[in-house]
Specification:
This protein is about 25% helix and about 30% strand. By secondary structure, it is α+β, with helices and mostly antiparallel strands. The chain has helices at about 25-40, 70-75, 75-85, 140-150, 200-215, 220-230, and strands at about 1-10, 45, 55-65, 90-100, 110-120, 135, 155-160, 175-185, 185-195, 245-250. It folds into 2 domains: about 1-100, Alpha-Beta Plaits, CATH 3.30.70; about 110-250, 2-Layer Sandwich (Alpha-Beta Plaits).
């Protein structure tokens, strides 16, 4: 049996989800907490890798349990309390539920939703540093242009133009089911759902929509960017600070 956890975390202090030598990661921190709770080294597996500085509102992962393990008989709500008591303030377990051994938090994913958050209040907030992308005011017309560009990014397409260099992935076709931009008070939010994402794909999509909003290209140019399969045709990859994983679907 495995215990599936839904966690949230502030990515500012971490090198990303994936455990790595000589770097602080969310996976290693959660593994240490599970070890303290269960008295042994636990295998913790995540739904995806997130880059350094990226945040999560609802990240999914599993903790492997063993026969006779106290973890196997511990009530899920007790596991939530026990883990949270041993985690730092910037990581929190929201929910725990038992799942079968066959369940895999990465390979069983049907879709994920990310949001990239812009703040355009004009004066930066010292309380939101590293949590949003601060920029000068975005007009209503610019939001409209961003949304128009975003909506042209939907469909089952080859998104190689939005993949950063350094990835070993060869199949760059993904199905984007939703892609929109909308204002939420002092924030402008780029939201995208898909069956999977390429390396830094969301941050490049958001950067391209933002550039279109600012008038550096017409929304209609998005189709040509995608068709080109050339990273040089799309715009900048935005910093990690504004990116949140908000939902994982199974």
């Amino acid at each position: 049996m495995k215990l599936r956890l839904t966690i949230s975390y502030d990515g500012r202090g971490y090198s990303g989800w994936q455990a790595q030598d000589n770097a602080k990661s969310v996976q290693r921190t959660l593994t240490d907490a599970a070890c303290a709770v269960y008295g042994r080294r636990c295998l913790v597996t995540g739904c995806s890798r997130t880059d350094a500085g990226v945040h999560a509102l609802a990240y999914s992962c599993t903790v492997a349990l063993e026969d006779g393990d106290i973890a196997a008989v511990m009530a899920p709500d007790a596991a939530v309390r026990a883990l949270n008591a041993r985690l730092p303030d910037d990581i929190a377990v929201a929910n725990a539920e038992p799942v079968g051994d066959a369940f895999h938090p990465r390979y069983d994913v049907r879709g994920k939703t990310y949001e990239y958050v812009f703040r355009d209040a004009g004066v930066r907030s010292p309380f939101l540093s590293g949590l949003v992308y601060e920029t000068r005011p975005i007009t209503d017309d610019e939001v409209r242009r961003m949304d128009e560009a975003a909506r042209l990014m939907t469909g089952r397409r080859d998104f190689a133009a939005f993949m950063a260099s350094g990835s070993k992935i060869t199949d760059t076709v993904r199905c984007v089911t939703e892609c929109t931009v909308a204002r939420r008070g002092e924030f402008v939010v780029f939201r995208v759902s898909a069956d999977g994402f390429l390396y830094k794909m969301v941050r490049t999509m958001a950067g391209t929509a933002f550039a279109v909003g600012r008038g550096r290209a017409e929304p209609s140019a998005v189709g040509d960017m995608i068709a080109s399969r050339s990273r040089a045709r799309a715009f900048e990859t935005l910093p990690a600070c504004g990116l949140y994983l908000v939902r994982v679907e199974y």
